[in-house]
């Protein structure tokens, strides 16, 4: 029988790639978007799938609204990707983030519980749960130490997912996904901010850009491959939690250097701390400036994920690593800025 997937956060990077994957697997895809006067479906448009998805307006803060939708859609699988997901924004809006990113999970789990406990449920957890933990690399057994309102809200969602599994026997799984990027990544996130800025510098539209902490290291993978891990988690015999990562960590500094290398420029770093700048080796022009406005109130310096459980139990493995990922993103941003 044809399966139906209900994806919240259909307008997101992951929502678009997951919808694309599931359509190719012959699912009926229903996408939940938030009620804004002008919702943006540009990512679905970019993948050419907007017309293949049924789009429904959702309110994550209204359990009744979600129950009505779940009853009507009758999904086989629910993927909860919607969240206030930007860490800096969560420091400025901690209550909103707690409601949407945390309580929203419970509202959706309640809708599933009240409608059909046979629905399989996926919750989008994050490596931000590990935060300041001092164990590397991080796996499913590593203690959590979230250090932003976003991460704390996600921790609540993580535990509610496990609680609904244990209390009501719902097939509720969660992926602890490390940072994943793509040409569809939001421009507010550091990786895409850099690829977009370097592409605009290359086309003469921008002189320089500001950046926060250059030395934080993250485990960055390719979103298109990570959504495959989400789907695999709902096809197993029993629900569980899985780390999805590349097991490689690179700094923001390396990300910037690699982007400039792609446009044939070498960046030379000068100064230190908040006075550090990056100059074009040939022209001497300052292209990158450290700006403390972009520092997080609470920062952690390294995430690196051990995905061996996902490899062993799901047969999931990342193919696209750091340099290749940047090449894909730079190519897309250079094209957009032609
Ligand atoms: P994203 O591009 O930031 O998108 C977030 C989505 O949530 C958007 O569709 C957004 O809708 C929606 N949303 C925000 N507030 C909402 C509300 N009040 N009601 C309903 N929908 C709302 O996310 P992403 O990077 O693709 O990530 C997908 C999920 O995975 C998120 O839960 C994120 O926290 C999690 N995650 C991401 C990463 C990563 O590196 N990308 C890593 C780990 C976990 P609008 O379009 O209307 O804003």
| H/E topology pattern | EHEHEHEHHEHEEHEEEHEEHEEEHH
Name the poorly predicted regions.
none
Rg calculated over all Cα atoms: 20 Å
Distance between the termini: 46 Å
Helical stretch count? Answer: 11
Share of β-strand residues: 15-25%
Helix content class? 25-40%
Overall form: globular
- Supply the helix-strand structural class: alpha/beta
Q: Name the quaternary structure.
A: single chain
Bound heterogens, unique: NADP nicotinamide-adenine-dinucleotide phosphate
Mean pLDDT: 97
Largest sheet: 7 strands, parallel
Characterise this structure.
This protein is α/β, with parallel strands linked by helices and 338 residues long. It has helices spanning 13-24, 42-46, 63-73, 87-92, 94-115, 149-168, 190-202, 223-233, 252-262, 308-314, 322-336; strands at residues 4-8, 28-34, 54-58, 77-80, 120-126, 172-177, 180-181, 209-211, 217-218, 221-222, 241-244, 250-251, 267-270, 277-280, 286-290. The protein has a seven-stranded parallel beta sheet with strand order 3-2-1-4-5-6-11, with helices on both faces. β13 (267-270) and β14 (277-280) form a beta hairpin. α1 (13-24) crosses α8 (223-233), α7 packs parallel to α9 and α9 crosses α11 (322-336). The longest helix is centred in the N-terminal third of the chain and has 22 residues, at 94-115. The radius of gyration is 20 Å and the shape is globular. The termini are far apart. The model has no long low-confidence stretch (mean pLDDT 97). NADP nicotinamide-adenine-dinucleotide phosphate (NAP) binds at residues 9, 11-15, 34, 36, 58, 60, 81-85, 100, 124, 126, 177, 179-180, 186.
């Amino acid at each position: 029988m044809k399966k139906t997937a209900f994806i919240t956060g259909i307008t997101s990077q992951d929502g678009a790639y997951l919808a694309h994957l599931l359509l190719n697997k012959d699912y009926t895809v229903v996408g939940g978007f938030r009620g804004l006067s002008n919702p943006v479906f540009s990512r679905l448009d970019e993948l050419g799938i907007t017309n293949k998805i049924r789009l429904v307006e959702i309110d994550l803060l209204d359990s009744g609204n979600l129950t009505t939708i779940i009853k009507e859609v009758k999904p086989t699988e629910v993927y909860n990707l919607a969240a206030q997901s930007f860490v800096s924004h969560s420091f400025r809006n901690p209550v909103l983030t707690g409601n949407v990113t945390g309580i929203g999970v419970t509202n959706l789990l309640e809708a599933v519980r009240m409608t059909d406990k046979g629905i399989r449920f996926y919750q989008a957890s994050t490596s931000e749960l590990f935060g300041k933990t001092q164990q590397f690399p991080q796996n499913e057994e590593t203690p959590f130490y979230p250090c932003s309102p976003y991460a704390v809200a996600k921790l609540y969602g993580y535990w509610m997912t496990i609680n609904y599994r244990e209390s009501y026997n719902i097939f509720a799984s969660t992926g602890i996904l490390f940072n994943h990027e793509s040409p569809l990544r939001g421009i507010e996130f550091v990786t895409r901010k850099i690829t977009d800025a370097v592409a605009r510098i290359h086309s003469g539209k921008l002189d320089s850009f500001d950046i926060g902490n250059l030395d934080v290291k993250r485990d960055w993978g390719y979103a298109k491959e990570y959504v495959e891990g989400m789907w695999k988690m709902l096809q197993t015999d029993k629900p569980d939690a899985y780390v999805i990562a590349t097991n490689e960590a690179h700094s923001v500094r390396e990300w910037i250097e690699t982007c400039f290398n792609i446009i044939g420029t070498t960046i030379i770093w000068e100064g230190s701390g908040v006075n550090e700048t990056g100059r074009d080796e040939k022209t001497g022009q300052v292209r990158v400036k450290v700006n403390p406005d972009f520092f997080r109130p609470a920062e952690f310096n390294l995430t690196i994920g051990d995905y061996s459980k996902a490899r062993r139990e799901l047969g999931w493995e990342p193919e696209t690593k750091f340099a290749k990922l940047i090449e894909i993103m730079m190519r897309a941003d250079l094209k957009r800025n032609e």
